[in-house]
Amino acid sequence: MLQQVLEMFPPPVRLAFAEVDRWLDQYTQAADGFPERLREAMRYSLLAPGKRLRPLLVLAASDACGGEPARALPAACAVEMIHTYSLIHDDLPAMDDDELRRGRPTCHIQFDEATAILAGDALIPLAFEVIATGLEPAELARRAVRELARTAGATQLVGGQADDLQHQFADPNREMLQAIHLRKTAAMMAVSLKLGGLVAGAGPSVLDRLENFGEKLGLAFQIADDLLDLRGEQAKIGKKTGKDESRGKLTYPGLLGVEQSVSLAGELVAAAQSELAALGDRAAGLRQLASFFVDRTH
Ligand code: GRG
């Protein structure tokens, strides 16, 4: 994560965030006998230099709710595992067919398709194991497993991806686009924030606020991602650009044009930020983060 972004957060968040990669590394050691090639492929993608935005959302939300961010590290690692699995599978020839991710060859290019499928598969149960064993008390772990399972499943992440693939060439409209991205992109951000809040013991109304913030942030982030695909520099963002247009994919700039997409992203950020007004200064970092990601160019 860029230093500039981390500086938006107080020291307990930064310290916990600095642990994320070490914990991901430990969770994927061969201690209980992963086959070597599978372990290598899982670690290749999981430990690749992603932004770790979702773990940061978990830790920052926990802090914003008065919790101790380090307690939320298992949840932060679990969301990164689910996110990474989704990227590995999305990059496969049967889906987005990408060769570059996080500045490196995609998992199936570096290894082979079967290994990439299995590496993604293996990250899913590992994420749930990490939550089930790492969060306490048991009731918190149970709730967190349920939230993440619902988000990663057929109604949200997987369902959003299925609809996106199906509608690639169909007659597009803004509602359809929003429904897809709420599930494909925004839901994982919303659940990251919610898990952070849950670990900190936040009540239902704060959890709802965090979820709403995450959904709006996620939609704005997707618009920024679409704009980057259209006009970003491949070397800076670590994945191929210009793909959406060449594949006739349903995107915000494709549907609304660049200017309207930029202004919609700005509106979403402002709406997201106002969701967290009640949390006051403790949520200042999250509010700033929303603006940053939408203004990002890399
Ligand atoms: C295969 C079930 C399944 C889902 C795939 C994640 C996904 C859904 C598709 C990837 C393509 C894409 C553009 C998704 C939108 C979400 C998004 C912008 C993902 C990239 O997230 P970043 O920018 O990536 O946080 P890093 O690599 O920094 O973690």
Explain what this protein looks like in three dimensions.
This protein has 298 residues and is mainly α. The chain has one domain (2-295): Farnesyl Diphosphate Synthase, CATH 1.10.600. It contains 16 helices and two strands. The chain has helices at 3-6, 11-27, 36-46, 53-64, 73-90, 107-110, 113-134, 138-152, 157-166, 174-199, 204-231, 234-237, 243-246, 252-256, 258-275, 284-295, and strands at residues 100-101, 104-105. A two-stranded antiparallel sheet has the order 1-2. A hairpin with a 2-residue loop joins strand 1 (100-101) and strand 2 (104-105). Helix 4 (53-64) runs antiparallel to helix 5 (73-90) and helix 5 (73-90) packs antiparallel against helix 10 (174-199). It is globular. The termini are close together. The mean pLDDT is 91. Residues 50-51, 53, 83, 86-87, 89-90, 102, 157-158, 161, 184-185, 222, 225 line the site of geranylgeranyl diphosphate (GRG).
